[in-house]
Amino acid sequence: MLNYPTQFDFIVIGSGSAGSVIAHRLSEDNNVSVLLIESGKHDNYPWIHIPVGYLYCIGNPRTDWCFDTVKDEGLNGRSIKYPRGKGIGGSSLINGMIYMRGQQADYQTWVNITGDEGWSWENVLPLFKKMERYHSGANEFHGNKGPWRVSKQRLSWKVLEVFKEASIENGIPFTKDFNTGDNFGVGYFDVNQYKGLRLNAGQAFIKSASYRTNLTISSESHATKILFDDNRRATGIEVLKNNELVQFSATKEIIVCAGAIGSVTLLERSGIGRADLLKEFNIPIVHSLPQLGENLQDHLQLRHVYRVENLPTLNTLANNWFGKMRIGLQYLLTRRGPMSMAPSQLGVFAKSTMDQPRANLQYHVQPLSLEKFGDPLHPFNGFTASVCNLQPTSKGSVHISGSDPFAKPIIKPNYLSSIEDQKIAIESVKLTRQIISAPVFKPYQPQEVLPGSAKQTDEEILDGVRNIGTTIFHPTSTCKMGAKNDPSRCVDSEFKLNGIINIRVVDGSTMPVITSGNTAAPIMMMAERASLLIKKDHSLT
Fold this sequence. Notes:
The protein is α/β, with parallel strands linked by helices and 541 residues long. It has helices at residues 17-26, 54-57, 104-114, 121-131, 158-169, 201-206, 259-269, 275-280, 314-317, 321-334, 419-436, 458-468, 520-537, and strands at residues 7-13, 34-37, 67-68, 81-82, 132-134, 148-150, 185-188, 193-194, 197-198, 215-218, 221-228, 234-241, 244-256, 272-273, 287-288, 300-307, 346-350, 361-366, 382-389, 397-399, 410-412, 447-450, 470-471, 503-505. The protein has a domain at 154-188 and 300-389 and 416-468: Cholesterol Oxidase, domain 2, CATH 3.30.410.
C-alpha cells in the first residue's frame, strides 16, 4: 500500500548521475511536486561507500544490472560483462570515481551537430562549476559551492611516479588538472570522494534534498512502461512495486534518466522505437523512432600488463593475510592506503600519432595487475596501463529482447568494427611500449605480459588487442541528440523526445558524440542544463 500520492508535476525515472541532479534541482521549487523512481535500493550496502568496494559491487545483482554483450567479432568472438549501476545513485555507485569533463573540442562538436551554442565549452563550463565543490577552492575553472565534491587522491605509489616520468620523457607534459579543456598531459586524477569515502550522486544530490516535502523517492520501483493519451502525450508511468503494478501520473513532464541501456529499453517497451522491433514483440506502436537504440558508443579499454622487478605494487602487498590486515587497519585508522584507491589513479592523455589535433588516447594506470577483472592479482609485482581510444568511430546498438520488463537487453558494441579504430588500437600498443622503454623504467626490467611481447606485426598486435579489449563502462549516444530540423534525431538539444509531448530523456544516451574521457561528470552537467531548461519552460524558480 502506497503512503504517498499517485499524481505529481514531474516524474524522474532513474536516480543515477542525471536523475539525482534533476530531482534535486526541480524540487528546489516548493511549488512543484517531484517523484523520483528507482529500480534499485537505497545505498545501505557497506561496500558502496568504500572506494575499493567496487570490486564487490560490480557483478553483484544488488548493485549491478549484470548485463552481458553478445559475442563480438571485434573481440575475437568474446562476450563481455557490461556493468550498469543499480540503486539510488545509479552507476555512480560502482564507477571509477574519476572527475573528468572531456575536452573543449568535444563540446564544439556537439554545437556543430545540434546547432545549439548552449553546448559550447564557454557555456557548459559554468554548469560544471555550479555543481562542484573543488578541493582547492574556486578559480577560473572550478567552483566551490556545489554538492559534488572533487578531491585529491589519498595515496602514493612509486610505480605510478615512474610511469609519470616515463610519459614526460616521451614528450607528454605534466598537468595538475585534466579539466581545463585541453587534457594533453600526465597527472593524477581528481576523484569524487570525501575523506576517503566514495561519493555517489544519491548522496550528493538526493540526500541533501530528501527533507523536502515536495520530493518523493520511490526505490525498489521498476518502471515497466510510459503511458500516453491518443495525442502521443505522455500522461504517466506504470511501475512494478511490491509485486503490484501501480500507475503514477505527471501533470507537467516525465524525465527519463535510466541510462544508455535503460532509457532505450523503457522507451521501446512503451511503444517508441523501431517499428519492426516493436511489431516483433507485439508492442503497440506509439511513435516510430528508427534511430533509438542505435549509435551505441563506448570507450574500449586495452589492458596492458607489465611485470616489474624491485618495484612494489599491490600484487605483493596484498598477497598474504598479514598484508591484507595491514591494509584494512590503515584504512580504518586513516581512511588512506589501498582501500581508498579509485580503480585507476594516474592518468595520461596522449596522441596516438603526433599529427592528431588533440589527445585521442586516455590511459588509466594502476599499481596492480591481473588477467581479467574478477581474477586474483598476479603473484608477481605488476602494473596495468589501460588505454582507450577517446573518439571511437565504431558504433553498436542496444535493444530489448522481449516485452518482459526484466528481460536482459541485447547489447552489440561492435568494437573495432571501423578501420580507423583498428589503426588507433595498434598505435596505442606501440605508444605504450615506447613509454615503457623510457630510461626511467630500465632499472625495473619491465616485461610485457598483455597483450604479449611476442605480438610484433600490426596483424599480431590487432589480434592481441581483440583478446584483451573490454568496456571501461562508458556507453553513450543510444538516444542521440540532434538539431531540431534533423528528422533522424531522437531528442533535440533541449532533450525533448522527437514526436512525443511531455517527455525528455536526459542521460548518457543523449550525448551527440561520446566525450573524451570518463562520462559521469558530463552527464551531470547535461542534467544541470536540462534542469534550467525545464524550469524555464514551466516558469519555475
